[in-house]
Write a structure and sequence with these properties.
- It holds the Pfam family Response_reg.
- One of its GO terms (biological process) is regulation of DNA-templated transcription.
- This is Two-component system, OmpR family, response regulator VicR.
- GO terms for molecular function: phosphorelay response regulator activity; transcription cis-regulatory region binding.
- It is a single chain.
- The protein is globular.
- It folds into 2 domains: 117 residues, Rossmann fold, CATH 3.40.50.2300; 93 residues, Orthogonal Bundle (Arc Repressor Mutant, subunit A), CATH 1.10.10.
- 42% of the residues lie in helices and 23% in strands.
- The protein is α/β, with parallel strands linked by helices.
- The chain is built from 9 helices and 14 strands.
Length: 226
Amino acid sequence: MRARILIVEDEERGVALLRRFLEPLGYEVRATQDPSKVKSMVVDGDVDLVLLDLMLAGSDGLDVLRALRDFSSVPVIVVTARDALTDKVETLGLGADDYVVKPYASDELLARIKAVLRRGSHEVTKMQPIAVGPIVIELDTPRVLVEGVEVDLSKNEYQVLTVLAQNRGRVVVADTLLDKVWGSEYRGYVSTLHVTVSRLRKKLGHCGKEYIVTKSGIGYMMKSDV
């Protein structure tokens, strides 16, 4: 089945360039210039990947990303002319899977698209859930339950929690988490990791504070018991 890519971009020329590049490679491309249509297009269109510009007419792409993460963990690659490090850190912290600065090399964008789709397509079957106290992480769904109640996590939040749970009782270095969740090119972006862990703790309620421990200057550890 062809991967379905949604382009959120307000410049028709930019959309046309991406269409001409991606469609001959076998991707099914959809596009919108209207941020208010993103939710319905993702929910109804069974989208595999979103390419999101941050500089949208009448709207900030960061707001679109925040809204998107409220209801979906669909992979998102931000493609934008904004090249400030603060923009990149904030965007990744909000749940974007990758960040590409315009102008970009087509081969680089294609490699990043393939990498993100590949990470999202890994299927884990017949794997036992990981239970850490009242936190249960189902690996084949994937979903997380806290005291029997499902918690809505973004893909990156889920992956951070899973890595910590798989190494419970041991400190996981920040760069190791960044490598496993975002990719090796994001080593050093500790602010992105801190923002993600902060959101994760809040969503897990009192269990987040009790079980996820910060090891200052090193990384994080998930307690095996409290």
